[in-house]
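[Primary structure, fold]
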Amino acid sequence: MNAIKTFYKKLFSEKIRINNRKNLKKLNGLFLKGNNFYCNCCEQSFSKFLDKSNGIDNRENAECPNCGSLERTRVLLEFIKNETDLLVKPNKLLHIAPEDALKTIFHQTDNLRYVNADININLADEEMDITSINYPDNTFDYVICCHVLGHIADEKKAIDELFRVLKKGGKALIQTPIHPINNTFENSEFKTEEERLKNYGEKDLLRLHGQDFQERLKRENMLIKKIDYRNKIDHNLAKKLSVGNGYRELIFLCQKV
């Protein structure tokens, strides 16, 4: 099996392999047509969503088989549509590690000047290190950064950079898994993928954010608000959207003042 995987990686570029995985999931979606679940990102309905697992944590009905949206993505889009002017007014948006489902929507929104970036050029339109964002101060009206900061070695620098490129009055929408611990847990001695998977639940995660995450975001010129928007969504719609349990879906709204 390992030999086959090695041959496959040599035969196809990373970008092609990523697209192949997406297309395979879409094929699965053809057999899941129904009305039990609804994706607000691609506006498709299914009998069920795909389950999601990292080998430790298993989530049922997590991923849209068509566009790949997750629980947190669907919650975030509801917040964006109902609580912000991002999609209706002329805005400039920086989207870090862009979710494909949202990237498609933002590309199709005429009023947006849209920049999306990732450390891996195969995953975004621009290659960018979040700890050294190559845009001037006060450039963007909105910044979106979801489930990224836990993977960044110099988290403080990354947060500083996200806020630096925000205009005054601009808003950053940040998501990260929040664990039922008071203080964020990190241990620099966990260096191997096996150690990180065992202790953090993901092989490339560097810390587990706790209840202090809002405090870690605080800066002199920023207002930070923690929002569990699942509770604002109509109960029947929330059930169809499959909005998760609040562990991954909290939104930290950060406004520059």
Q: What stands out?
A: The chain has a mean pLDDT of 93.
